[in-house]
Design brief:
By secondary structure, this protein is mainly β. Helix content is 0%, strand content 55%.
Length: 84
């Protein structure tokens, strides 16, 4: 099964880090697929917009992402999308 980052369109794998131009990044730590949803444990470095200067901070959390069976861009593949 492919895991695709919705924000960048890049393929994810366990242990892979994707960095964005604004300094934010995500790392996939664990992946548990189900029939129509997938649970993904991620470490994300993101901006804290509640503080002045918007500092970066690190968060580890479980995230649900949809699994698509018939997405037109991935002809017949089962694809999980990470909602970044």
């Amino acid at each position: 099964m492919r895991i695709v980052d919705s924000r960048s369109g890049e393929d994810l794998a366990i242990g892979k880090t994707i960095s964005y131009p604004d300094g934010e990044s995500i790392t996939l730590l664990d992946f548990r697929p189900r029939l129509f949803m997938a649970r993904m444990r991620v470490r994300s470095v993101e901006r804290d917009y509640s503080k002045p200067g918007y500092p970066l901070h690190t968060v580890e959390q479980w995230v649900d992402g949809p699994i698509r069976w018939f997405h037109p861009a991935f002809a017949g593949q089962r694809v999980a999308f990470f909602p970044s």
